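Membrane protein structure dump, as promised
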Amino acid sequence: MDPLARLDAMSAGLARNWWLIALRGAFAILFGAIALIAPGATLLTLVIFFSAYMLVDGITEIVAAVRAAERHERWGYLLAAGAINIVVGVLAFLMPGTALVAFIYLIAAWALVTGALMIAAAFRLHLDHGRWWLGIGGALSVLFAVALVASPALSLLVLTSWMGGYAIAFGAFMLVLAFRLRSRHVGTERAMRQA
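structure tokens r here:
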């Protein structure tokens, strides 16, 4: 397959599964709102919420990867990100109160890896399918990782606010991307029906 055909296939696959990206964005915003509304909640509770979010997010990405593989489209990035999210969710659940500093580094590693995967995926997406939104979402993840690692002790104190703000911003970018992909998908379906 030539690079342009691969780009078309990945863009079409994302457009068809726009609702999975919207679901991911909605869960991120919900998680962020809970983190901001209940700042007095213990970090243990935050770990459990984060773990649940990561599991749902990972399953969502794996479903998208399976759908892409069924259509013989590129699915590696989705599967890798989904698997990483599930592993991080399980690890966060298993060690909630014993290693809060490790949790900071775990979140930073997750944000860095998934951010890098999203930036890489953005270069494989057509500009009119929302390349910049996906890239900005990935850059936000990378910046979030850097902020966590820069001061882990302070991160423990303000983790709730950082996580909430990040999750809401990330979710908003994913919703914008999802609805942009939806409009491309609807336009493509209309064009195919009229042909």
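The radius of gyration is 17 Å.
lmk if u need the other ones
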